[in-house]
Write a structure and sequence with these properties.
Blueprint lengths: L1 H30 L4 H26 L4 H24 L5 H23 L5
Length: about 120
């Protein structure tokens, strides 16, 4: 039950930050003359930072092997993003899609490794 609550907290943080990033990028696209490629790049950087933060938080509460914790969390979140993307937005998968999700998973792994190393000794 305790693990379930940790995963639900992770999903809550993820959805909350994703809604904020979506709102900001929508407002940026609607009210400014910023190019779409800049907004896409900004979204990718913001998503990478979100994955890093989630990995960092999970690494701080993990007992051992931060890379494995980051790999699990990043894989689950990327699988969710891939399913949403396939259902609502696109019907084909390219190699660049797997590269994109691989970068996000690496961000989570690095965040988790740093988080487990920054754990306070009690």
């Amino acid at each position: 039950m305790d693990k379930m609550i940790k995963y639900l907290k992770t999903w809550g943080i993820f959805f909350g930050l994703m809604i904020i990033v979506s709102l900001v990028s929508t407002l940026l696209n609607y009210f400014t003359d910023v190019s779409l490629s800049f907004i896409c790049t900004l979204n990718m950087i913001a998503l990478l930072i979100i994955f890093f933060i989630i990995g960092f938080k999970q690494g701080k509460v993990s007992s051992s092997k931060g890379w494995l914790c980051g790999l699990k969390n990043g894989g689950i979140l990327c699988l969710f993003l891939l399913l949403v993307s396939l259902i609502f937005f696109t019907k084909n998968i390219k190699l660049s899609t797997f590269l994109y999700y691989g970068i996000l998973i690496l961000g989570t792994v690095f965040g988790s490794i740093i988080g487990i190393n920054k754990k306070k000794e009690a």
